[in-house]
């Protein structure tokens, strides 16, 4: 969700920008409810199986429209190896994300995952040699301090195992974004989405096969809902970055934390802790500062 789209930004007050902002709110809501379903599944199935289900549920919504319009050729990769690398990162990202959700609230996991934009900046500086000024380096340190506050190593914070899983997931997401930045020079968007889902489905499905748990009949409609919500979210986020500047719509992704707290409260009667809120303020504040510094001038 956090990847930026290239293109000249429209006028800040234009109708297109308004459309982009609304699309981003829809995307965040769709992905949040999809994550809630993944959390529901995590209570019944192993994390790798849930990850395979998530990918398999979305694949038809990618392939069928392209087949219907005679555009299946767009799924062919130009350079297969980056697709494989990004897909393998997706395997670890989804499996650790589901594992974190399994034992903790959505808001707790989201609050750590909000550090992903800071990790992207950090990795871009280290791996792509992108220039990062002192202000953004300080923001990264503040955001990482916020993660420590959320974890509270002295006790009372997010569980250590779940916290480490959430950090691993955010790190893999950031690495996948870095790979995607390079891939967009030669690869089409449909090919990138399809290969990502295919690799996750195949690898997670193969790893989960020995301990595969029979899917309950009552869960099939929810699996279909995962595919629908994932499609809505992917389409909406694409529209958001198509019609509005990244610096305008990217900060809206932090509203996922509000969705997470609301879903936790309604469906699991769980409330955020003071340490989670304090750490989330640091992480989100640092992320918003980085987004502000990266805005077009």
Task: Provide an overview of this structure.
It contains twelve helices and no strands. With 297 residues, the protein is mainly alpha-helical. The protein has one domain.
The shape, in one word, is: globular
Low-confidence stretches: 1-13
Proportion of residues in helical segments: over 70%
Number of DSSP strand runs: 0
Structural class: mainly alpha
Work out the strand percent: under 5%
Task: Work out the radius of gyration.
Answer: 19 Å
Elements, N to C (H/E):
HHHHHHHHHHHH
The total tally of domains equals 1
The number of helical runs is 12
Give the biggest sheet.
none
Mean pLDDT reading: 86
Provide a brief overview of the structure.
By secondary structure, this protein is mainly α. It has one domain. It has helices spanning 15-42, 47-68, 80-103, 106-113, 116-127, 134-151, 160-183, 189-208, 220-243, 246-249, 256-268, 274-293.
């Amino acid at each position: 969700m956090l990847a930026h789209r290239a293109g000249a930004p429209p006028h800040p007050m234009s109708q297109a920008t308004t459309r982009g902002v609304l699309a981003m709110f829809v995307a965040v809501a769709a992905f949040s409810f999809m994550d809630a379903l993944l959390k529901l599944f995590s209570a019944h199935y192993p994390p790798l199986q849930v990850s395979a289900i998530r990918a398999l549920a979305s694949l038809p919504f990618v392939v069928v429209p392209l087949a219907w319009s005679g555009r299946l050729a767009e799924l062919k990769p130009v350079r297969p190896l980056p697709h494989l690398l990004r897909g393998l990162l997706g395997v670890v990202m989804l499996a650790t994300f589901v594992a974190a959700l399994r034992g903790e609230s959505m808001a707790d996991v989201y609050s750590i995952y909000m550090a992903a934009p800071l990790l992207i900046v950090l990795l871009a500086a280290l791996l792509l040699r992108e220039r990062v000024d002192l202000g953004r380096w300080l923001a990264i340190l503040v955001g990482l301090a916020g993660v420590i506050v959320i974890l509270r190593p002295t006790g009372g914070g997010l569980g250590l195992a779940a916290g480490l899983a959430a950090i691993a997931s955010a790190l893999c997401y950031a690495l996948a974004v870095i790979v995607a930045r390079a891939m967009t020079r030669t690869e089409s968007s449909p090919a990138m989405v399809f290969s990502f889902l295919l690799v996750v489905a195949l690898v997670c499905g193969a790893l989960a096969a020995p301990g595969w748990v029979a899917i309950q009949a009552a869960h099939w409609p929810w699996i279909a809902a995962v595919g629908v919500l994932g499609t809505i979210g992917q389409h909406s986020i694409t529209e958001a970055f198509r019609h509005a500047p990244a610096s305008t719509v990217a900060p809206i992704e932090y509203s996922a934390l509000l969705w997470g707290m609301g879903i936790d409260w309604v469906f699991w009667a769980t409330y955020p802790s003071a340490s989670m809120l304090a750490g989330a303020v640091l992480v989100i504040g640092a992320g918003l500062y980085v987004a502000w510094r990266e805005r077009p001038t």
